[in-house]
Amino acid sequence: GESFRRQERYKDAAFAYADLIQGYSAHELAPLAHLLLADCQWRQELYGPARTTTQALLRKFPDHPLAASALMLEGNALSREGEHGAAAHAYRAAHDRTSATELGEASLALMCRANYLNRDDDALISASHYLLNRLPASASPWRPATLLYLGEGYLRRGLAVEALGIDRQVLSLYPAHPFVPYALDGVAWGLFL
């Protein structure tokens, strides 16, 4: 399956991973085969089957180290289907398993994005604020995205002073990050409002 995947022949790779899962369901590589099958399905825009595969991995191997990656992939599939509230829950579950890692940073940013797209500003602000206060400062490239989504949530709630503080924090902590123009835009809106 891996050679097909490297060649971006995702349909062929998916068949190979499905055969591995079916023939060797108790093998130590079965969780990885589930994750790679779900990834191939996702890349073919088969989001429902990708979610079914990640759910099978989580059901069969709930404590496996790949469970957080499966939750991330499930969140991605849900987001592509427009199910942003459910995607936020999947990303939160992934974050709860991996908070102090790069995957944890990514899941936090994607959770914020899902809440933003779902227009659930209360969840965006409360969850993001709580999690950011719990986590140490980070040089992760995902952290500015998390902060900017938090700022947008504040702005949509009419809390311009709080939004301005977040945007200034991004400018101060990440002056060379590609998201700096968004923070500058947020500062301009914060000063305007």
Describe this structure in words.
The protein has 193 residues and is an all-alpha fold. It is built from 11 helices and no strands. The chain is 76% helix and 0% strand. The longest helix has 16 residues, at 102-117.
Backbone shape? elongated
Task: Report the sheet-strand fraction.
Answer: under 5%
Cα-atom radius of gyration: 19 Å
Runs in which pLDDT lies below 50 for 5 or more consecutive residues are none
Order of helices and strands: HHHHHHHHHHH
N-to-C span: 55 Å
Short description:
This protein has 193 residues and is mainly alpha-helical. The chain has helices at residues 2-6, 10-23, 30-43, 47-60, 67-80, 84-98, 102-117, 121-134, 143-156, 160-173, 180-192.
Keyphrases for this structure?
76% helix; mainly alpha; single chain; 193 residues
Write the topology of this structure.
Layout: H1 2-6, H2 10-23, H3 30-43, H4 47-60, H5 67-80, H6 84-98, H7 102-117, H8 121-134, H9 143-156, H10 160-173, H11 180-192
